[in-house]
Specification:
two-stranded antiparallel sheet; 16-stranded antiparallel barrel
């Protein structure tokens, strides 16, 4: 059986297995637990002509960026299951889709085994929970080179100092602007390894490497990026062509010491065109944050931890990021950078307010003649 057929079959297998496990929950011992949780992310964006393909100088949008309800269940003998439903809504409509939906076995000494829909192990920013990231949106690099959640199988193991993960997946059409893949869906093999040579209560230094090989099955390939404003148009673009396969390699580093966090990633990709040349793109970001009220954001098991206010007045965090992506090759496509300055306020563990100012720059192919301006984004985050 081919890898592609195996991955496609895994969707139905994992979904029905998850349903069966959840229905059997009432028969297990009382010590096993069903947990229901979720989040609401409400965003407001104001952006100028850079982010609008028609060059409009003033745009305002309010949207439900993510409304999520999540069911998790710990079964006997090392089995656990998750079912996640996500909703989005703005002035143009609404959408509901499955988020992370899988079954997992954790009693194998070598690695945990996960079957279902999940994140691929590519990059640190993509594999950090949306509720725990420093900035409102992922960087242009992450949005350009890392996929959203896909169906497949994943092996992973993690300690406080070291993690490794390997996954085989089938890529879904997650882009609502497209009509779907014309040929068979792309399949991928992806892996990530992280190591923390320093891991202490006050300080953690972590490095990582990840990579992915993706068979595009002659589908159309084009990167279209919203430049870190979720309600904006996809104004940062690469060339468009039928792709044979793609290779992505990523390097990452993060350092957390007391209230200071420094985080950086670099990714490069090579895409082989069907009966054509190779196309090469890359990008990076550098993020810095400092918590004014003295709290410590931990790094553990390859991910960022949450900020937990130590006092009744909450916690304040200043953050900045410089991100760059080069989607220009053979005289086609754009290269762009975004500079972000922001402040985050953690009222409690479950309530966070975020405000960010973004300043862009672009060269090469553009969607409008007016590429100036700036943007302001705000978010209200509530966890339950």
């Amino acid at each position: 059986m081919s890898l592609e057929r195996l991955m496609i079959n895994s969707r139905a297998t994992s979904t029905w297995a998850l349903i069966a496990l959840l229905f059997s929950a009432s028969t297990v011992a009382e010590k096993e637990r069903l947990q229901i949780s979720g989040q609401v992310l409400m965003d407001m964006d104001y952006y100028e002509s850079f982010w609008d393909k028609n060059g409009d100088s003033s745009n305002t949008s309010v949207e439900l960026r993510n409304g999520r309800i999540q069911f998790t269940y710990d079964f006997p003998a090392g089995w656990e299951a998750k079912l996640q439903v996500n909703a989005e809504a703005d002035s143009s409509g609404s959408d509901v889709e499955l988020g992370s939906t899988y079954i997992r076995y954790t009693n194998w000494k070598i690695a945990d085994i996960t079957l279902g829909k999940m994140k691929e192990p590519l990059g640190m920013e993509r594999n950090t929970r949306s509720s725990q990231v420093v900035t409102i949106e992922d960087s242009m690099m992450t949005a350009s080179f890392t996929p959203r959640k896909n169906w497949g199988i994943r092996l992973n193991d993690a300690t406080k100092r070291r993690t490794w993960s390997l996954a085989a997946t089938v890529e879904e059409d997650n882009d609502n602007d497209d009509d779907g893949y014309k040929e068979d869906e792309p399949i991928a093999v992806t892996g990530r390894f992280t190591f923390a040579p320093i891991h202490a209560e006050e300080q953690t230094l972590q490095f990582g490497i990840s990579g992915s090989w993706r068979d595009w099955n002659e589908n159309t390939f084009q990167i279209k990026n919203r430049a870190e404003v979720s309600s904006a148009d996809r104004v940062v673009r690469s060339a468009e062509f039928a792709a044979d396969n793609q290779t992505v390699i990523g390097l990452e580093a993060a350092w957390s010491r007391n209230s200071l966090l420094l985080q950086a990633e670099y990714m490069a990709t090579r895409v082989e065109e069907v009966e054509g040349p190779d196309w090469n793109y890359d990008g990076y970001y550098f993020t810095a944050s400092y918590i004014l009220t003295g709290e410590h954001r931990k790094l553990s098991k390859g991910k960022l931890g949450a900020v937990k206010p130590s006092g009744d007045s909450g916690a304040w965090e200043l953050e900045s990021r410089y991100s760059y992506v080069n989607l220009r090759d053979r005289g086609l496509g754009a290269e762009a950078s975004i500079t972000t300055l922001g402040v985050n306020y953690y009222y409690r563990d479950d309530i966070k307010l975020m405000l960010a100012y973004l300043y862009p720059d672009i060269a090469g192919s553009v969607t409008s003649d007016d590429t100036g301006g700036h943007a302001i984004s705000a978010r209200i985050q509530v966890l339950f």
